[in-house]
Amino acid sequence: MEYICVTKDNLEKEHICCAISNNNDVQVASKKTWLSERFDDGLCFLKSVERGKCFIEYIPAENAWNPLNAKGFMYIDCLWVSGSFKGHGYSSDLLNECIRDSKSKGKKGLCILSSAKKKPFLADPKYLRHKGFEVCDEADNGIQLWCLLFDENASKPRLLDCARHPHVDEAGYVLYYTSQCPFNAKYVPVLASIAREKGVPFKAIHLQSKVEAQHAPSPITTYALFHDGEYLTNEQMNDKRFLKLIGR
């Protein structure tokens, strides 16, 4: 498999989204804008030559849009291999390049979010364990911070207190999200429209800076949905899923 490193210079011409074929889609535009603003923070986006089917996105943990203390580590935003591309070792190719690059930059290790059991849009814990990662912290909602140490004497990454006990002090549905996930550009407005139509309390909080994201009430900031204060899910919802949820 041949891989391409996406940069400011080639961002506009490269296909980056796993499930969106139209490069002019609002979702793609949103994601590319988010990426372009992160490159100066050290973000790396490595993808296969195929159209968005295999990629890894990682950034120095100090600049990650997540509430964690992982100074000197590299944080993996996303490691994605989809469809028929699974089972060919491409995820290992991408992870190995991330490890090589991170070591060359003097990092202490890698960290990534997962859970005890596989959840949508999170790394598979079985895969992480197979690759030598270990759980180094866990929030009340079961979201875990995993790490792969390059230096055995390094202090392990930790979640910040604001994310350790996910909760919000507002009634109704409250969604925290960023533009890191392209689907949000399309579906968050859809959910807001449905909520208005159905008379369901709904508030969407768009985290638009690293500082805001690092103080979020959840380890996951790409998508964190709460209901009456309690954390519900990190799984992005379309209209059908949301209608099913509010109809329960």
Q: Which helices and strands, and how do they pair?
A:
Elements: E1 3-6, H1 26-36, E2 44-48, E3 54-60, E4 68-69, E5 73-81, H2 90-104, E6 109-115, H3 125-130, E7 134-138, E8 143-149, E9 158-159, H4 161-164, E10 173-177, H5 183-198, E11 202-206, H6 210-213, E12 223-227, E13 230-233, H7 239-246
Parallel strand pairs: 5-6, 10-11
Antiparallel strand pairs: 1-2, 2-3, 3-5, 4-9, 6-8, 7-8, 10-12, 12-13
**Helical residue percent band:** 25-40%
Mean pLDDT: 93
Low-pLDDT residue spans: none
Structural class: alpha+beta
Report the sheet with the most strands, covering strand number, pairing sense and barrel closure. 7 strands, mixed
- Strand content bin: 25-35%
The quaternary state of the protein chains shown equals: single chain
User: What is the helix/strand order?
Assistant: EHEEEEHEHEEEHEHEHEEH
Number of DSSP-assigned strands: 13
Anisotropy-based shape: globular
Query: How far apart, in Å, are the first and last alpha carbons?
Result: 45 Å
CA radius of gyration: 18 Å
Strand order of the largest sheet: 1-2-3-5-6-8-7
- What is the count of helical runs? 7
Could you explain the architecture of this structure?
The protein has 248 residues and is α+β, with helices and mostly antiparallel strands. It is built from seven helices and 13 strands. The chain starts with a strand and ends with a helix. The mean pLDDT is 93.
